[in-house]
Structure formats: C-alpha cells, structure tokens
Amino acid sequence: LLFPVSNLCGKCRPRDTDLLQPSLNFLYWSLHQTTPCSQQRAVAVLLSSVPLLELLQKVLECTWLQSPPSKAAYLSPEDALLCSGWLLVASLLLYQHRYNTEVHQTISLDLTEVLNAVIFRKKKPILLLVSIMQFLRAVLQQNFSSSLLVIIGQNTAQGATQPQPSSLQDAALHPLAMQQVFSLVVSLQNLLVHKDLLLSPAVVACLETLVEYLSVKNQDVALHVASQPWHRFLLFTLLNGGQKSFLQPEVLRLVTLFLRYQSSNIISQKEISQILQEAAEANLAELPEATSRALHLFLCQV
Predict the structure, then answer these.
(1) Is residue 35 packed enough to be buried (19+ CB in 10 Å), middle (13-18) or exposed (0-12)?
(2) Which of 215, 207, 213, 191 minimizes the C-alpha distance to 256?
(3) Which pLDDT score, from 0 to 100, does residue 169 have?
(4) Residue 276 DSSP one-character state
(5) 45 Cβ partners below 8 Å, 6+ apart?
(6) What is the distance between the alpha carbons of residues 243 and 93, in angstroms, rounded to a whole number?
(7) Measured at the alpha carbon of residue 130, what is the angle toward residues 99 and 249, in degrees to the nearest 5?
(8) 194 φ, ψ (degrees, to nearest 5)
(9) In Å, how far from its chain's centre is CA 72?
(10) Which domain of life is it from (predicted)?
C-alpha cells in the first residue's frame, strides 16, 4: 500500500486536505507501527518517492502563510494537515539516519522560519507547535547534518562567506546563532508555564535535545544555558499548583537536566533530598509510566 498511497500524495496539491490528511497519517503510522525489518523497507519506499517529498516540501512551506487564528476548539483541516506533514518529515529524518537510507530528493527549509514558529507562536494550535518541535528535535539530534534536509537561512548564508568577528560563539553553534538559542530557551520556558498536558512533554524534550546539541558544539554555552536563574523560578512555578509534588514527569526531567550540567544554583541538595524522600514514600507500582521513566533517569543521574 505504501507505493500507491505515496504516489497518490505526489499527485495532490497542499490544499487537497480531504485526501492528503488520511494519506499522510497512513504513511506516518506505517513507519511507526511495524517491525524493524519492515520499517527499513518502508523508509526506503517513501524516500524513493520524489513526488511525495516535493509535496511535503510544499505542505511545510504553508506553515509560514499568515492565516487568522481559529477560535474553534478543534484543528482546522489546514492545520491538521500541517501537523501530519511535520510529524511525517520528522519521522523520515529519524529513520533515514538510523538506516542510512538513500535519499532521492532533499527537502529545503529556512531555519529562521522554523525557529520563529516556536519563538513567536502567533497563536498557533498546540498540536502544530508540538509537531514542529518534534521536527526541531530530530534536526538537533542529527546536528543539522541529515542528507534528507537542506537548511537555509541568514546564519547559514553568512557562514558560507566569512566569519563575523563579533560572533565566535555563533560560528561554534552553526547554523544556530546565540541570539536564536536564547530566544528559543525563553520561549520554551514560557510554554512550560502553561502546564498543558500535550505541550509540556514536547517542550521538555526539545529543551533537553537543545542543551545536548549545545554541549557537543560548545560546552561553555551549554552550561551557561542550563544555569540560567530563570530555570529555578520556572521549577517553582510548575510546582505551584494543584499537584505540588516533585514526582511529575516534566519536573523530574528538568531536574535531571540541571543535575547533568551541574547547575547547583538551580537545584540544591535540599530539593534532591526532597525528591528522594517523595520517591521513597510513593507506591512505585502505581506511578504513571512517564513518571516511572523520568524517576529512573533522575536516580541514574544522581
């Protein structure tokens, strides 16, 4: 089925939402709900479809088109298609890298536009933000080196000519710039304050991947970002609600991140002891799976 569905997608236009939405969802789940052996073949089939990749390029570019924010409680068909497009491309990036699959057509994206979609948001639906962050994580995990993706943007263009004397750190973080990094971190912090059940895990995961990327590129910058005083205020904001326990998956993952980069000004020995005490008193068998995983990572880090 992958052959006819991918070929059908390639014959569509981005505005053919009624046909493209279920088709892209089928392709996405075909990648995820299959055996590793079949998964490798599925990736090869999709990446060999030049019309499909060209269609995905056009779909993603529709993200930057201005449209009035919907006041409805559900996604518009256009926004739903964008979500499917971003999630499918993120998956293709992940699995192409895993299996080193041959690429027959690249996708070009402006990095500044992608970052601005998260930084400025402009009342984008939460699911669309989550989808874009999933894509951003996949790109960061591969250090912007995927053979499927061509990154364009102002910082990339400057790096190809001559280095700017005022920005040695920008050169080290290429194709990101320091200003973009700090704007993205602040935006992620602000998104966490909303305490949205769908948004929060995606935001924490994106922050984790960003700091890991920075640590590979420039350890000093990673430590500087992880030790920002605002993080401590953010932690206590997350704890100031109906559930004040540290045993929340997002809180545990943030604490683990700060411990990994030795941010003693963010997390103190007192808070670490409090988490250990709460864990000792909790019924571990009744903890949600996400909390159990986060607690396991926290204990390993300690």
Answers:
(1) exposed
(2) 207
(3) 75
(4) H
(5) 2, 3, 6
(6) 37
(7) 90
(8) -70, -20
(9) 25
(10) Eukaryota
